[in-house]
Design brief:
It contains five helices and five strands; from the N terminus they run βββαβααβαα. The chain is α+β, with helices and mostly antiparallel strands and about 150 residues long. It has a three-stranded antiparallel sheet. The chain has a two-stranded parallel sheet with strand order 4-5. β2 and β3 form a beta hairpin. α1 packs across α3 (about 100-110). The two termini are about 20 Å apart.
């Protein structure tokens, strides 16, 4: 998952995006402006991470309803260290108390061994193409999984 903090110049809402994969193939992806104005980069990233985790849980329940087993933990990659640290740490600091509910959702999934939250370098995060204007080489590299043609575009 990824978010671009306060990107919209008209209302300062963040733009977020995420991709959910099943066996290396994208089964769900989303890009859009967040519904609320977040107060920090971490809050924006965490908001999108939670949205991604909810989609991952939907796909998990769908597969299980068909009698399929899902290997756990599922992996959620986020390119914001603070978001990863908050999801993997049991402390809620005074400056992040306003996002505590979302922290607890991710932590609960982690403690139940349903989800593992990992850091990924921004340059490797495919969801950048849903949140930022990228140069053509980055679009080609990130877009490989989303194209039916030999070349993306």
């Amino acid at each position: 998952s990824d978010s671009d903090f306060a990107k919209n110049p008209d209302n300062r809402k963040s733009v977020g995006g995420h991709v959910v994969y099943l066996e290396g193939a994208p089964v769900s992806y989303k890009s859009g402006t967040h519904k609320i104005v977040e107060l920090s980069v971490t809050e924006a990233e965490q908001s999108e991470a939670v949205t991604c985790a909810q989609t991952m849980m939907h796909v998990k329940r769908l597969l299980e309803s068909m009698g399929l087993k899902v290997k756990l933990p599922m992996i959620l990659e986020v390119d914001n260290k603070a978001t990863v640290d908050l999801a993997n740490n049991l402390n809620t600091g005074g400056r992040t108390r306003h996002v505590a509910v979302k922290q607890y959702y991710l932590r609960e999934l982690k403690e139940l061994k349903i989800l593992e939250v990992r850091w990924i370098a921004g340059s490797e995060n495919e969801t950048d193409m849903f949140t930022k204007n990228l140069h053509r080489p980055d679009i080609d590299r990130h877009g490989e999984n989303f194209s039916t043609d030999e070349e993306f575009g």
